[in-house]
Every structure is written in structure tokens, then in C-alpha cells.
Amino acid sequence: MVGATIARSYALTNATLITLAPLANAAGPQAQITASDLGVVERGTILVEHGVLTAVGTGIQCEAAVAHARSRFANFGARDMGERVVMPGFVDAHTHALFAGNRVADFEDLAAHRQPALGMRYTIEQTRAAGSEALVVIGARRLAQMLRHGTTTVEVKSGYALTTQGELDLLAIIAELGALPELPRTVPTFCGAHALPPEFSDYDAFVNELCDRMLPRVAEQGIAWFGDAFCEKGFFSPQQSDRFLRACASRGLRLRIHADEMSHSGGALVAARLRTASADHLNFIDDADVAALAGGGSVAVLCPGTVDYLGLARYAPARKLIDAGVPVALATDYNPGTCPCFSLQMIVYLARRHLGLAVHEAIAGVTLNAAYSLGLAGEIGTLTTGKRADVVVLDTSDYQELGYSFGTNLVASATVGAKSA
Predict the structure, then answer these.
(1) Which residue stretches of 275-367 are H helix?
(2) What is the pLDDT of residue 106?
């Protein structure tokens, strides 16, 4: 039975551990991932104390630590995993999970090969009208669903209010939800340059609003970790994205960017120039963009679910990126209009089937490399001592079934480790 639990003090024994320990001490995210980097431990044990991993290894290696913990904790429990896979919690590095309403009508239009009628403005309208109490309930329901599918940390963007107070409210709700012990940890991103709100008819004028009025309030609020821009033809140009992101950096935010998602927009070059933490989507980049990204230091956060949902002409060139030395992470891009998918398991399937990733590359893409893109690799992403006990148990003893099985949920349990105060 699928379950989502809160970390306490316990041990999981007789497990097939996917630790990623060989990558835990790397200087940064890795492009070249091998099968040995998974750090597989057969019949392994993990020990968790107060939501933190305190021992990881074979049963014999952990035997004394488990016995000591058993003597110290009154409610301590040890559970035999029957050789099932135990691995780090999934990290979803790109979502738009906080919004009201749905765009089922747009989905029906897409299925009938019609231009979707509602679009992002409809979602902005619905989100503005919902109110904070309703959005808390909506967001909690979605994050709980993600946790049931194995996601223990999730980046969540604002961007569906696009007024100063509305964006501040969305960021506050994202942080509030992420602090709840029964939900995934959240990483709030100010996606102010997401769309043109109905009050504006000119993108330059709205970028002025973002930089001069919204951004100072967002920085003062102190919740957003990142700033993000949707650099795409018909949305924010490379010049407008560059201006907004530089303003974000000047206010202390780290940077992410939607780049070249639906066309060759120039976003990847902005990412390389600004050395953004992540460059996301990248479906329509060319060889020059790949070379620029290789020198820019960004993690490529690929979102193949969006390509599949929209029926785009091409997927991101994952193998070219990896061969050039660009680290690759994977994300759902969960949102109402282009990828209403909660499950990183489905994304792993698409990455293995259509991006050409091997299973070990895909696993790193939804764990450690995704954590690196969020600045959290020192805390999550591997099963190694001292890290938070974000742990997923798969209902299989063969980790290669992750992505091979799709349209189902292999997660037997997902546990969120210790959260910061």
C-alpha cells in the first residue's frame, strides 16, 4: 500500500540500497553518471535518528549502531524490507504546483488538434479569485499526491497572480506548505516573468513593474530562493529575461530560467551568460547553445512530460548535453496547461524512452543532480550519513523497474526527513 510518512527514529534492514554514495563527495553535479555511481548495497541497512541518516551500509556494518539506537529510543522500530529497493527521495526541480482551477478544456482542444482556448490568463484569473485559504487546501492536496509518488522535495514557482500582493501571498503559501511535516519540503521561486498580466499590454512595461516595484517587496519578504523567467517567443525576450534576472540577482536571489521550451528562443545563452543555477526545458537548443551551457555551469533541468503532453516536435538533446559535460536533472514541470503530471516516475519513463538516458542517469536526475540545481546537495539526494532522511521504498527489488514500469506507482512509502526550523 502506498504510504507517505514522517521521519522518526527507525531502521530499514535487508534492503537493496541505492545510495549514490560515490557521488556524495563530488565537487558539484556530474554529467557522466555510471552504474557504479549508484552505490548499490545488497541486503543493506539504513539507520535514521530524529529524521537524519546516522548509519548506512551492510547489515553487519550497521548492526552495532542499530542495537545502540534500539536501546536509546523507546519507540524505535526496525523493518525488514525483503530486499526491496530503498533510495533517496525524489527531488522535483521545476513545478508550478500552486494555482486554482484546471485547464481540462485546453486538454480537449489539444487532443482534437485545436488551439487551446483558455491559456495562462485563465489560470491567472482563477488563482486571483481563489483566495489564500483555498490555495492552501489546493496546494496541500497536490503536494501530498507528489509525496505519494515519491517526491520529498519540490521546487514550486509563483507566477499565477502577477500582482505584487498576489505574488507575495503565493510565496508565503509555498513556504507554509513546505514547513508542514506531512508534506514535501518546498523551494519557493519567484517566477514573476511568467506571463503578461491582463493589466498590461506591453512586456517592457511589465518588466519595469517587476524590477521596480514587485522585486523589492519579494526580496524584503525573504521567502523566495530563486528568480525565474519564461524566455520564449511570444513571452519574455532574451533581453527582457536578462534584465529581470539581473535585477533578481542584485536582490540576492539565485537564478533559474525557462529556456528554448517551444522554440529556439535564446534562453540558453542567457543562462550561460548569467551562470544560472538551472536552465530548464532546452528542447530547441542547437550545438552552439550546448557549448555555451557547458561553459556556464548551469544544471540542465529537462522536462520531457511537457514535450509529450504538447506533442512538441523534439525532446531536449540530453545525450549531447551529457557528452558536452552538462549535468542533467529531470522534473515534472507540473502545471495546469502543459504538463499536469504529479509523478517523477512517469518522467523517468519518458527520459529513458525518449531522451536516451540509462536508468542510473535518470536516477541521478531525480535525486542528486536535481538537488544540486536547488542548492541542496549537501542535505539531500543521497543515502549517506548526516543527510536528511528523505527515503523512498520501491515495491520491487530491481531498481531497473523505475521507468520501465509506467502508468503505475512503484512507491511503497515515501518519508520526509528532518526539516529546518
Answers:
(1) 287-294, 304-310, 318-323, 344-354, 359-365
(2) 95
